[in-house]
Specification:
Elements lengths: L7 H7 L5 E6 L5 H14 L7 E5 L2 H14 L9 E4 H11 L1 H4 L5 E2 L2 H14 L1 H5 L5 H14 L3 H10 L5 H27 L2 E2 L1 H14 L1 H8 L4 E4 L7 H7 L7 E6 L14 H4 L1 H4 L3 E6 L1 E2 L4 H12 L10 E2 L8 E5 L2 H18 L7 E5 L6 H9 L4 E3 L9 H14 L4 H9 L6 H11 L5 H11 L2 H16 L4 H19 L4 H5 L2 H9 L5 H11 L10 E2 L2 E2 L8 E5 L8 E6 L16 H15 L2 E10 H10 L19 E4 L26
Parallel strand pairs: 1-7, 1-8, 2-3, 2-6, 4-5, 6-7, 9-10, 11-18, 11-19, 12-16, 12-17, 13-16, 17-18
Antiparallel strand pairs: 14-15
Helix pairs in contact: 1-2, 2-3, 4-11, 4-27, 6-8, 6-10, 8-9, 9-10, 11-12, 11-13, 16-28, 17-18, 19-20, 19-23, 19-24, 20-21, 22-23, 23-24, 24-26
């Protein structure tokens, strides 16, 4: 990509000469082009690629940016350029500087493992746990929310357990349960330390705390990170900002984001990181990109109107570089089945008569649960589709079984890993495993484990466990070989344990796990990086999502996605489902201006995914209810209530079939056999 390929504002952003810049890039305005162009520009002007760190929110996005930078430069110019998620980057720093951060030989644990630790804590602290009536997962949600938003415990309990309610009864309940929750969370923190576990949030805190308190750490990293290029800056949360602040003194920030697309507050994201950028970042500037290259102007007119209705000032009105097109269609439907049949018929018509592929169609919804009737109709009409969601590769049970063997070699104090590895074998239940574990935890290191496992665990199971442990230890520098050796011994038990879908679904996953192993220098790296990225995409190689290998074959299918999973998606034809009262906005958010505005931004993101055709569906029953009670209920609010008629073409479902007129009275049934027996 050359500078001549950029428009005037994009060029200004790429060639910025100041210290810190926020590029406020509206939907479809080329923010990725800017961040790619900036990285290439810096490298061409003498900055070493290893001193540039690109940060974004998915490994896939990071890989895409890095590959596009490499493609725009001559061979090897950007070979050492690094793109990562926040968590992956912090993990890389911790691994690269084990003495500086003091976290060597710690195991990164995933959400399932966190839940296991919390359940142990709740079992140990029965009195406190019984008195709160909150499940272990909810306790983890409180813990993570408080850390990511930097809110106190009382506020975190209020948000997670009571949905933000603030009244005398709620306050009294919080006062009662808060001390017990505090004991449980502190015990959880202690339990993590004893097992040498670090969770996702710990990765950021370890790096942030060291940099904030240690000048030597800042000096060391100042030689490593000269430029921080941060994508999707509107999605950063207070914990990520807490991590970034120390870098303001040692690096130059180049942030790209859109406050109108900040839709992840439930993860702690704070769009004020964008709104307050100039106040928080000394010697900084803000540049706005408003020329949209994705959508036609008619689609942008609806999106612009929606965001302009907000009480917040987003300072943008997008202009379509592509010019005019079709008006968005607002389809009024009486039921979900009517909606589903309309969409299916429309897609089939486009496929058979309008030369469109199935992959030209994107369906967006606030909740995946809402699409069940739609999926049923697609199956009935044989429309191929994929629905974004499901467990990722490294979260699959059969993969976690094999990984557990690697975990206990990497960290011999990993209780969760040991319990899974021990109970994997038929002859070992939880009680027996607990007895073995109490002895194993007295051993000093992995070498001691390798020598003594035969004596601790008797029988054929002990022989398998000892053999696997020793083989992994011997091949700890060859991760692929370690996986192969483990799997070869575990395969018969895996095959029996998952016999219902072994051949069809699970068996083919293990060659992919071996392939992943080739990309890591150590077992610890595989465990931490693999868990962080869920092995969804690695260095451009095809890996697993759910249980299907993503190869180079292009599959033609409709995509059904939640809006929250739709960042980066776009489509020729886009359907935004159920833009109805009590959905946009949710009635839960009417009393909270921040949450109400986030619902507006969710809808804005959905509308701006469409390139040429936008279909918006809504429930006529909900609309009629709003009209009936308009002026009588102060709590009624609907984003499209004042939508100007000229912005959309409004239709009642054109595919609705009328019921044929029947005879007014029933006849007697005629069961004449109808066969001539003569």
């Amino acid at each position: 990509m050359e500078i001549k390929d950029l428009n005037e504002k994009q060029t200004q952003a790429v060639q910025y000469f100041g210290e810190h810049l926020l590029v406020l890039a509206g939907a479809g305005t080329g923010k990725t082009r800017c961040i790619v162009g900036r990285a290439a520009y810096l490298i061409k002007n003498g900055v070493q690629p290893e001193h540039i760190q690109i940060l974004t929110f998915t490994k896939r996005a990071a890989n895409e940016i890095v590959e596009r930078v490499k493609a725009s430069l001559s061979e090897n110019e950007a070979k050492s350029l690094n793109g990562s998620t926040f968590h992956s980057w912090c993990n890389q720093l911790i691994v690269r500087f084990p003495n500086l951060f003091g976290a060597s030989n710690y195991t990164v644990i995933d959400p399932d493992d966190q839940l296991s630790v919390m359940k142990m804590v709740c079992g140990d602290k029965v009195l406190e746990y019984k008195g709160i009536r909150i499940k272990p997962q909810k306790l983890l949600d409180i813990y993570s929310y408080g850390r990511n938003t930097l809110k106190n415990l009382s506020t975190s309990i209020r948000e997670i357990v009571y949905k933000g309610k603030d009244d005398d009864e709620t306050n009294e309940e919080i006062d009662i349960i808060r001390p017990k929750i505090e004991i449980l969370l502190k015990a959880y923190q202690q339990k993590k330390g004893e097992g040498r576990y670090i969770d996702y949030d710990d990765l950021l805190l370890i790096v942030a705390n060291r940099l904030r308190k240690d000048e030597e750490a800042r000096t060391i990293l100042s030689k490593q990170v000269e430029h921080l290029l941060i994508d999707e800056f509107q999605d950063t949360n207070p914990l990520q900002w807490y991590l970034l602040v120390p870098f303001l003194k040692i690096s130059k920030f180049y942030c790209v984001g859109d406050d109108a697309q900040s839709i992840y507050s439930f993860r702690g994201a704070d769009f004020k990181n964008v709104h307050l950028f100039k106040k928080r970042v000394p010697n900084s500037e803000v540049l706005i990109l408003d020329k949209n290259y994705r959508s036609t102007q008619e689609i942008l007119d609806v999106s612009n109107w929606l965001i302009a209705e907000s009480k917040l000032d987003y300072k943008k009105q997008l202009q379509a570089a592509r010019g005019k097109g079709l008006k968005p269609k607002l389809i009024n439907v009486a039921s979900q089945w009517e909606e589903a049949n309309f969409i299916a018929s429309n897609i089939l018509e486009n496929f058979t008569e309008n030369n469109k592929t199935f992959s030209d169609h994107l369906i967006l919804t606030k909740s995946n649960y809402y699409t069940k009737p739609l999926q049923a109709v697609f199956i009935q009409k044989k429309i191929p589709y994929v629905s974004y969601g499901g467990r990722k590769f490294m979260e699959s049970a059969h993969i976690k079984d094999v990984i557990s063997a690697l975990r206990v070699v990497n960290n011999h104090l990993d209780e969760i890993g040991w319990m899974r590895f021990l109970t994997f074998w038929d002859g070992i239940g939880e009680v027996k495993a607990g007895k073995f574990l109490s002895e194993i935890l007295t051993l000093e290191n992995p070498l001691e484990c390798a020598k003594n496992l035969d004596d601790i665990i008797d029988g054929r199971e002990g022989e398998h466990i000892s053999n696997i442990y020793n083989l992994i230890l011997e091949n700890s520098g060859d991760v692929k070989r370690a996986i192969q050796e483990s799997y070869s011994i575990m395969e018969p038990t895996l095959k029996f344990k998952y016999r219902k879908d072994w051949d069809e679904k699970r068996k083919a996953d293990f060659p992919v796990l071996e392939m992943l192993g080739e990309n890591y220098a150590s077992i610890g790296q595989l465990i931490s990086e693999g868990i962080l990225e869920n092995a969804k995409q690695l260095n451009g190689n095809p890996v697993l999502e759910s249980s299907k290998l993503n190869d180079s074959e292009i599959k033609d299918h409709v995509i059904i996605s939640t809006v929250h999973s739709a960042k980066g998606l776009e489509s020729d034809v886009c359907y935004v489902l159920n833009v109805s009262p009590k959905v946009y906005p949710s009635p839960w958010n009417l009393d909270n201006e921040d949450k109400l505005e986030e619902d507006r931004r969710v809808l804005y993101v959905a509308l701006t995914r469409a390139k040429n055709e936008l279909y918006i569906t809504r429930d006529t029953n909900s609309i009629n209810t709003v009209k009936k009670y308009k002026g009588k209920q102060s709590s009624t609010e609907y984003f499209f209530e004042e939508l100007p008629d000229n912005l959309v073409e409004q239709l009642v479902n054109p595919y609705t079939t009328t019921r044929p007129e029947d005879k007014s009275t029933p006849n007697d049934i005629d069961l004449s056999f109808g066969m001539d027996f003569s």
